[in-house]
What does this fold into?
Amino acid sequence: MDSAHSDTTGGADQLVTTKILVAGGFGVGKTTLIGAISEIKPLQTEETLTDRGIGVDDVAGVESKTTTTVAMDFGRITIHDKLVLYLFGTPGQERFWFMWDELAFGALGAIVMADTRRLTNCFPSVDYFEHRGTPFIVGVNCFDGAERHNPDDIRIALDLDPGIPVVLFDARDRESVKQVLITVVEHVLGRASAERGRGDVPAPTT
Ligand SMILES: Nc1nc2c(ncn2[C@@H]2O[C@H](COP(=O)(O)OP(=O)(O)OP(=O)(O)O)[C@@H](O)[C@H]2O)c(=O)[nH]1
Ligand SMILES: [Mg+2]
It folds into this structure.
């Protein structure tokens, strides 16, 4: 696992900073999530969707969407006085996927966002993190009017490992997003401690 940009090796009193990626298909709500939770004005790289995207950009389900992320989103959230998360949102459209490697560098964990109306759109993100070995969770953004599904059914539909958390949430709601972030941090820590237990990675030095 690549952790060059995250510091989780500090002692109990040290501030730990962690980079978390927010990924998922076009229009699933990545920019919305970071905007809802960031304590700083989020960096956004939105460009207007124009007629040239007709036939290329699938806006089904998010017809009111007028802009798209062309590079990245960035935000920051202090979970508690010892833990700060830096959030990096990926661009959802396939023509910008070449940027994912750069954005993923140093990330300790990821949230793959899904929309049950367009579930297959999150497959490339799931594949990407599985191949990279980056711990990830799936956050199902519950759009108004979208059918609700049980997280276990979604896990089966996505063919996920049983240990990967699947949570339902609302990307516009700060408290709901905070729960998702806590879930991803706990998942990252749980996986790191399981790997240490197997002797795959050394215990952190204090
Ligand atoms: N009803 C509802 N609308 C949402 C929700 N989350 C996002 N939206 C809307 O859905 C659209 C998509 O949101 P974005 O946050 O731009 O999606 P994105 O994943 O960043 O999109 P790209 O970067 O273009 O891939 C926007 O119009 C949001 O206002 C949600 O939970 N419920
Ligand atoms: Mg976006």
